[in-house]
Design goal:
With 463 residues, the chain is α/β, with parallel strands linked by helices. It has 13 helices and eleven strands. Helices cover 49% and strands 12% of the residues.
């Protein structure tokens, strides 16, 4: 029996490698292939400039896995968001190098339409066909879960939900009553001390240990019992089913450590985020410079006081920063007690009401982004007085300060803008901020930016 398991392992690894390679290449091949096809229809596919651009497009499409087991809606949306990233990068590259005029506009426009459609179709095909191909080739790992805890139930759900995992869950091992497994619809295979014999008799490929971290002696005994098998063993700490921020594995001089609360902008993510912020802020400020001048003159002529309202707020790691806005009120509060603006607030000037409703009062904050104090997308900064109040009332409030505050944010595009006259309203805003930190991606930032632009003319919470 042991020899049978050993013969299966190379095939399993080969299938895993093929699926991983396929996932990495779907998007780059779709973008580069569609560009080459459009160029071919115009008879210029063999031109050196178009061949060079095909290679650049392939690289810009970011060869990262797209997770084909995700719902189709998410896969479709991801294809369009990646198209925005690629097109923006090409536009920026063309402006910087001056080569934008080397390509026919009609070819580029046709490709701008064809690329996301091709990517969406290939993603759909991969989503539907990959599980069938894997099943047809006999690739199926047999898995068991040790422990019917919340962690164990979460593992079972993910195995059942994942179309590309290529695993079949045989059941649970747990010392407690079998009725615990009825809700999950899974078989109770026996007590934990019977696991090793079951593995030897049933060609089990993978074991997921989901016992509480306090069960160290039981886990060590279980590992000792499994020493003479070739089964793959994974330990899933119960802390991973709690509400963590950017949970991930790391190492400290070779010692494995688990991050339970960390900024998403570490390593290359931080470089990408800051580069995008700097380039985009510089481009936006250049484009809106005439508008900024007009608003500044209007603010100065329509009401007494400074043009810019400067207020202390918390930035990265809780450091105080000065945030700029066009003055929209007759007062400039920046003390220990600040009254939030509300609908019908008499302190808001007539011009200020228009600026706030259209979010034009926030435009000077792109200067904060250029200074490195803020980001284009992130949790909105609150006045220091409000921070000191709510950090004592809302659990996890200060975690939002592990990243730079944003000109716009996930909370704002989900209706959490305006006055927070109740604790529940502020808590809802913080929940969205923490959700953003847990699930950050460059595509999510672009999605927030696009939704912000759409809300500038019709946000009912802007006043």
């Amino acid at each position: 029996m042991q020899a049978t398991i050993n013969r299966q392992e190379p095939a399993i690894k080969a299938h895993l490698s093929l699926v991983s390679i396929f996932e990495h290449l779907v998007d780059p091949l779709a973008f580069a292939g569609s560009f080459l096809a459009v160029a071919g229809l115009h008879g210029v596919a063999s031109h050196p400039a178009y061949l060079a651009l095909t290679i650049i497009v392939f690289l810009l499409a970011q060869p990262v896995p797209m997770h084909i087991d995700r719902p189709l809606k998410i896969l479709y949306r991801g294809s369009w968001m990646k198209a925005v990233v690629v097109f923006f990068a090409l536009l920026l590259l063309g402006m910087l190098t001056g080569y934008a005029n080397a390509f026919a506009p009609d070819i580029l426009l046709q490709w701008f339409v064809a690329a996301p459609l091709t990517t969406a179709l290939l993603r759909h095909a991969a989503h539907e066909l990959t599980p069938l191909v894997m099943a047809g080739t006999g690739y199926r790992q047999r898995a068991v879960v040790v422990g019917a805890s919340a962690t164990g139930q979460a593992i079972a759900e993910r195995i059942e939900r994942s179309r590309r995992a290529g695993k079949r869950l045989l059941g649970f091992f747990d010392d407690r009553h079998p009725d615990r497994h009825v809700k999950a619809g899974m078989r109770h295979l026996g007590r934990i001390d019977a696991l090793a014999d079951y593995v030897r008799r049933n060609d089990v490929d993978v074991i997921y240990i989901a016992l509480p971290m306090t069960s160290q002696p039981r886990i060590l005994k279980l590992l000792d019992d499994l020493r003479d098998t070739t089964v793959s063993i994974y330990f899933v700490p119960d802390l991973f089913v709690t509400d963590l921020i950017q949970a991930r594995m790391d190492d400290l001089g070779g010692l494995p450590v688990v991050a339970v609360c960390e900024s998403p902008f570490t390593g290359i993510n931080g470089v990408v985020k800051q580069c995008f912020d700097f380039v985009a802020a510089a481009a936006i400020l250049t484009l809106i410079a005439p508008l900024l001048l007009v608003i500044a003159i209007a603010v100065k002529l329509t009401s007494p006081g400074p043009i810019l309202f400067r207020q202390h707020r918390y930035g990265l790691d809780g450091e105080r920063i000065l945030v700029y806005k066009f003055r929209s009120m007759s007062v400039c509060e920046n003390g220990d007690t600040i009254t939030q603006a509300h609908a019908g607030d008499m302190r808001i000037t007539p011009l200020g009401a228009f600026l706030r409703r259209t979010s034009l009062d926030e435009l000077p904050q792109f200067l904060n982004v250029l200074q490195g104090r803020m980001s284009i997308v992130g949790p909105r900064p609150h006045a220091v007085a409000h921070n000191e109040t709510y950090r004592k009332l809302i659990k996890g409030y200060m975690i939002r300060h592990k990243v730079r505050p944003g000109v716009t944010g996930w909370a704002q595009v989900n209706g959490c803008r305006g006055e927070t006259e109740t604790l529940d309203k502020m808590k809802r805003r913080i929940d969205y901020d923490l959700e953003y930190l847990r699930h950050w991606s460059f595509a999510l930032d672009l999605r927030i930016i696009l939704r912000t632009v759409g809300l500038m003319h019709k946000d009912p919470n802007a006043y």
